[in-house]
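Example noted here:
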Amino acid sequence: MLKMICVLLMIVPNFAIATGISSYRLGTGDVIIIQVYDEADLSLEQRLPDTGLISYPFLGELKVSGLTVLDLEKKITDGLKDGYLVDPKVTVTVKEYRPFYIHGQVKKPGSYPYQPSLTVRKAVSLAGGFGDRASLNKIFVIRSSDVTHSQRRVNLNSPIFPGDIITIQESFF
């Protein structure tokens, strides 16, 4: 059993780095799972509310929005070490990412579940393809991580992230 735990502890950080999850910032709409090894009462699955706060046993309200998965693991681990558990093994995973949005010249505008490795091209496919008047050169994204909410021109191969808003503009020719 101890060997299996050691192997998991070596694999999880490498997986997190390879998938880019270590830099992903949690936000409203994400569904997270918090697990503490051998402490079922401390496990929690929750969709992050607009406040960005979750209520966690023993620790009370925790600000989660804006943290990475690794930041949240450390925050909970440190909190549980402070008088509750001797050596807590905390894992946090994102079960469901917040949706991205696409509108403009696509057949089915709206919100769609985020999928890792999403590009503009794949997002357009999820939205039923380009509309009849779509411009392939006038594609803009507002990144959810951009506090100024400014549009950036992108191309079909540009990556899309959870919470992004894609606009496909109309072509005049």
Summary: The helical segments are 2-19, 69-81, 120-126.
